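wait is this the right file?? whatever heres the structure
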């Protein structure tokens, strides 16, 4: 745990943040693949991948044939299965803090961001449906040419989670799988779900 938290600092460079997010999505990438996806040179991506490896954030992935060197995230130790999620949350928080600190230094057309939130009454199936709908929307942008004029890496974060009002009762009603939420009990298993994006 200590290694992961102290290693976050070397990942504050925006290129390294983008590389870590890309590896998390793709499973493994080479410097050439990263350059194609992020719009940077292969040499620049290779340099930052090696730095991330030096700080214990990524490691060699199984080779797919040829001389290309793929990288993957360091696997989470069995005793801390939720550590990977915490680590990526820390990276998200770090990248957003850097954006807020340096936004005034960005070109004028990039001095903006977009954020929204909502509370919806959803069933577990609808929560999964909403998550998949958002992923489908992202896929339409992911396959566009990363080298097109004006394109730059942009972080897109989304969190969907039920809202609980009584922490000591989060186990809920064993009979129907629901849990206490603010206000009257929703119909047909629906519960308040927070959407942040």
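ok assuming it is, sequence goes like this
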């Amino acid at each position: 745990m200590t290694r992961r938290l102290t290693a976050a600092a070397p990942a504050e460079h925006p290129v390294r943040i983008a590389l870590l997010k890309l590896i998390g999505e793709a499973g493994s990438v080479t410097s050439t693949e990263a350059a194609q996806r992020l719009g940077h040179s292969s040499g620049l991506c290779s340099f930052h991948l090696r730095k991330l490896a030096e700080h214990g954030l990524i490691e060699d992935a199984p080779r797919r044939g040829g001389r290309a060197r793929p990288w993957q995230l360091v696997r989470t130790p069995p005793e801390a299965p939720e550590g990977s999620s915490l680590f990526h949350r820390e990276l998200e928080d770090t990248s957003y803090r850097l954006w807020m600190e340096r936004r005034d230094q960005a070109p004028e057309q990039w001095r903006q961001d977009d954020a929204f939130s909502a509370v919806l009454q959803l069933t577990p199936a609808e929560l999964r449906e909403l998550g998949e709908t958002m992923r489908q929307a992202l896929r339409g942008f992911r396959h566009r040419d990363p080298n097109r004029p004006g394109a730059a890496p942009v972080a897109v974060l989304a969190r969907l989670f039920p809202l609980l009002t009584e922490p000591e009762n989060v186990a809920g009603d064993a009979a129907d799988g629901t849990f206490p939420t603010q206000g009257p009990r929703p119909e047909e298993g629906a519960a308040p779900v927070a959407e942040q994006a």
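Helices lie at 2-7, 14-26, 31-38, 42-54, 83-102, 124-142. so i think its the right one actually
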